[in-house]
Structure formats: structure tokens, C-alpha cells
């Protein structure tokens, strides 16, 4: 669903977020863009992305962004964008991704078009798309260990030396199957073009309501990717004797899980708000990234 944002822009554009990749080039661009915004009377709340390595452990997400931000510009790649989504949390703050180099699936514009795009955003010449997210809970011995929201995917993956994982999966309490595979990905339509795509999953348009289950290198070839309605609850457990299995959330946070853990995944009630500009089209990005019809990335 897309909603016009002109009224929001007219209500006040005095304070924006600037989420920046931990990189000298991105930092220099952020300095220049901050000065550009301040000349126009815009206050800037700047946040630097943490290092790119997956963080281990049950600790919560980063300190959330201020609630009064009009929008947030994200300078970096898709990984930086996912980190920015964690920073925004459940707040209804729209994001605009600015990609350095080749376009990503989440970045709306290139670095060279930043000022032109920012002018459009500040005058309300854009729309907002609501992208579904996942709510993920991990219970250990009956107590909550993790409760987080992700945009792309939840990945259960075996370690380098582990045997195939046996992943017991239920849909709304009804037994589906036990995936015997290197792992399992549960993704949103937005996340269908991330790790799930590399694992052989389908490309699902972001406006199609559904959750995608994609086994990673399944032992049984009849275990195919599956799209289920987005109102279901997916419950996942490891079979006995499972070891060296990692749960990863949006590639941003990792946690070692055991056979006693219960992972529950459902659609979040808090979507991510993505700023869309009039001349940017999803299928053009898809064709370019997947090299369809001879297109270049």
C-alpha cells in the first residue's frame, strides 16, 4: 500500500535522521549533506552504523531514533539500511536509502542524485510504501530470550562443522515438516530478494501478502520453498542432537540456539515505511540486479 506524504511534509521538516555507513567516503558525504540541510534550516540527528560483523548474543537492538524525526536518509548499502531499520524500531519514520555505487534493492537513489531527491522529499514530492516486517521471539526453558523485529529474514543455519540441521516446523500449531537441510530461511516479500533468493527461493513482490519458507540445500529435493499467508504463526524447533546451529536476524545479529529453544515468527504489526520517488520503479531495479534482458547491475 502506498500513501501520499505531502501533508506530512507540510506539517514540518525541521528535524531529520542521517544514518551513515561506517566508512570514510560515506562520512565525508554525510558531512557535506549535513551542511546542505542546515543551510535550509533542517536539524540533523546523525547516527553511525556499527561494524558490519554479525553481533552475537541476546542483547537488544541499538538505542532507538528520536520519535519526532520527519524522515531518515540512509547513506550506505542494503546492510546499512537494515541496520537503520533496527535503529528506527517500531517508530513510523520513513526511510530513504542512498546507495554508494550500484543500486541495491533497498536503496532508492544513487549518491549523485542525493540533493535532488532530498529537495523532493522536503517538499513532499514522494509516496510511502509500507513494507511488512517479521516479529521474532525466541523462548528458552519457557522464558523469553529474544523479541525483535526484522525486515528481510530470519535464518537458521548450521555451523561449518555441524551435521545437517533437523528443523521441526509448525504452521499455526499444525505440524508441517522437519526440514533436514543446511538451514531454513523465513523471509518477508522484501527479503525474498536477499539470502532467500540465493537459496533458490521465489521473488515475491513487496505488495504480495505472504511469508516465504526457503530450505537451504535440503537433503530431500522435494522440500521446496513455500509461501504461506502472512497472518499465520510459524513455530520452529530443532530436533534432538542438534548442535552448532545459529539463528541470524536480518544479517545483523546472531544467536546460537539449541534443541530446547522455541522460535516463533509472525508478521509484525509495525511495518517499515519506505520513501518512493515517482521515477523509481521496482521492476526496473529487479531487472537490473538480476541481469534480465541483458541489463547491467
Tell me about this structure.
There is one protein chain. The chain is an alpha+beta fold and 297 residues long. The protein folds into two domains: 2-132 and 271-294, Probable inorganic polyphosphate/atp-NAD kinase, domain 1 (Rossmann fold, 3-Layer(aba) Sandwich); 134-267, Sandwich (Tumour Suppressor Smad4), CATH 2.60.200.30. The chain has helices at 6-11, 24-39, 78-88, 114-122, 195-198, 282-289; strands at 2-4, 15-20, 43-48, 55-56, 72-75, 95-99, 109-110, 127-131, 134-140, 143-150, 153-158, 165-171, 174-181, 183-187, 211-216, 226-228, 233-238, 245-249, 253-257, 261-267, 272-276. A seven-stranded mixed β-sheet has the order 4-19-18-11-14-15-16, with no helix packed on it. Strands 10-9-20-17-12-13 form a six-stranded antiparallel β-sheet. Strand 2, helix 2 (24-39) and strand 3 (43-48) form a beta-alpha-beta unit. The protein is elongated, with a radius of gyration of 20 Å. 40% of the residues are buried.
Topology:
Blueprint: E1 2-4, H1 6-11, E2 15-20, H2 24-39, E3 43-48, E4 55-56, E5 72-75, H3 78-88, E6 95-99, E7 109-110, H4 114-122, E8 127-131, E9 134-140, E10 143-150, E11 153-158, E12 165-171, E13 174-181, E14 183-187, H5 195-198, E15 211-216, E16 226-228, E17 233-238, E18 245-249, E19 253-257, E20 261-267, E21 272-276, H6 282-289
Parallel strand pairs: 2-3, 2-5, 4-19, 5-6, 6-7
Antiparallel strand pairs: 1-8, 8-21, 9-10, 9-20, 11-14, 11-18, 12-13, 12-17, 14-15, 15-16, 17-20, 18-19
Amino acid at each position: 500500500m502506498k500513501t501520499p506524504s505531502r501533508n506530512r511534509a507540510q506539517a514540518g521538516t525541521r528535524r531529520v535522521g542521517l544514518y551513515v555507513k561506517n566508512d570514510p567516503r560515506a562520512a565525508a558525504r554525510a558531512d557535506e549533506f549535513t551542511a546542505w540541510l542546515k543551510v535550509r534550516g533542517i536539524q540533523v540527528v546523525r547516527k553511525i552504523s556499527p561494524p558490519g560483523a554479525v553481533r552475537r548474543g541476546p542483547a537488544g537492538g541499538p538505542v532507538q531514533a528520536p520519535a519526532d524525526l520527519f524522515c531518515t536518509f540512509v547513506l550506505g548499502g542494503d546492510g546499512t539500511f537494515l541496520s537503520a531499520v533496527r535503529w528506527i524500531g517500531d517508530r513510523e519514520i520513513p526511510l530513504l536509502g542512498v546507495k554508494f555505487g550500484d543500486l541495491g534493492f533497498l536503496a532508492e537513489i544513487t549518491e549523485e542524485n542525493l540533493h535532488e531527491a532530498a529537495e523532493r522529499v522536503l517538499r513532499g514530492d514522494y509516496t510511502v510504501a509500507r513494507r511488512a516486517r517479521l516479529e521474532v521471539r525466541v523462548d528458552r526453558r519457557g522464558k523469553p530470550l529474544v523479541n525483535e523485529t526484522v525486515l528481510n529474514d530470519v535464518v537458521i543455519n548450521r555451523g561449518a562443522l555441524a551435521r545437517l540441521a533437523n528443523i521441526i516446523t509448525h504452521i499455526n500449531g499444525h505440524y508441517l515438516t522437519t526440514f533436514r537441510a543446511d538451514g531454513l530461511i523465513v523471509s518477508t516479500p522484501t527479503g525474498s530478494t536477499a539470502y532467500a533468493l540465493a537459496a533458490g527461493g521465489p521473488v515475491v513482490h513487496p505488495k504480495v501478502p505472504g511469508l516465504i519458507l526457503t530450505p537451504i540445500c535440503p537433503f530431500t529435493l522435494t522440500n521446496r520453498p513455500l509461501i504461506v499467508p502472512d497472518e499465520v504463526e510459524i513455530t520452529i524447533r530443532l530436533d534432538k542432537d542438534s548442535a552448532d546451529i545459529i539463528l541470524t536476524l536480518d544479517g545483523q545479529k546472531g544467536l546460537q540456539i539449541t534443541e530446547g529453544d522455541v522460535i516463533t515468527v509472525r508478521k509484525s504489526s509495525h511495518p517499515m515505511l519506505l520513501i518512493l520517488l515517482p521515477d523509481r520503479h521496482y521492476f526496473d531495479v529487479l531487472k537490473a540486479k538480476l541481469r534480465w534482458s541483458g541489463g547491467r547491475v
